[in-house]
């Protein structure tokens, strides 16, 4: 089942709900940088996201150095942003 790309209107609506996220990749992705108390806290966060990603078959593109985690969400199969990215961003915001 192909994954639909968000319409521009839905993308803008979703971004309005996702404080801290910004468009990237020429509008095909969203990104956020998170900072934690230390590396352990950052890695614990990444572990929770990883389990969620596996459960939902939707995985972040991310970079971690010490307490900093930089995340990009995009949907390769849709060639841009999909509802899966919105759902993953909401989950990340809820546990960050
Ligand atoms: N994760 N972010 C993201 N985007 C995808 O398109 C994607 C994924 N995880 C697994 C997945 N697609 C599979 O359905 C295959 O397309 C790799």
UniProtKB/TrEMBL annotation:
GO biological process, one term: tetrahydrobiopterin biosynthetic process
Catalytic activity annotation: (4aS,6R)-4a-hydroxy-L-erythro-5,6,7,8-tetrahydrobiopterin = (6R)-L-erythro-6,7-dihydrobiopterin + H2O
Gene3D superfamilies to which the protein is assigned, alphabetical: Transcriptional coactivator/pterin dehydratase
Transmembrane regions: none
Enzyme Commission code(s) on record: 4.2.1.96
Gene Ontology terms for molecular function: 4-alpha-hydroxytetrahydrobiopterin dehydratase activity
Keywords, comma-separated and alphabetical: Lyase
InterPro entries to which the protein is assigned, alphabetical: PCD_sf (IPR036428), Pterin_deHydtase (IPR001533)
Keyword Lyase listed: yes
Similarity-based family: Belongs to the pterin-4-alpha-carbinolamine dehydratase family.
PANTHER family: PTERIN-4-ALPHA-CARBINOLAMINE DEHYDRATASE
Designated name of the protein: Putative pterin-4-alpha-carbinolamine dehydratase
Source species of the chain: Novosphingobium silvae
């Amino acid at each position: 089942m192909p994954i639909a790309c968000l319409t521009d209107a839905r993308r803008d609506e979703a971004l309005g709900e996702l404080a801290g996220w910004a468009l990237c990749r020429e509008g095909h992705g969203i990104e956020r940088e998170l900072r934690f108390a230390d590396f352990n806290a950052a890695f614990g966060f990444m572990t929770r996201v990883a389990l969620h990603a596996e459960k939902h078959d939707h995985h972040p593109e991310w970079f971690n150095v010490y307490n900093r985690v930089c995340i990009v969400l995009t949907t390769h199969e849709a060639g841009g942003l999909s509802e899966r990215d919105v759902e993953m961003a909401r989950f990340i915001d809820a546990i960050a």
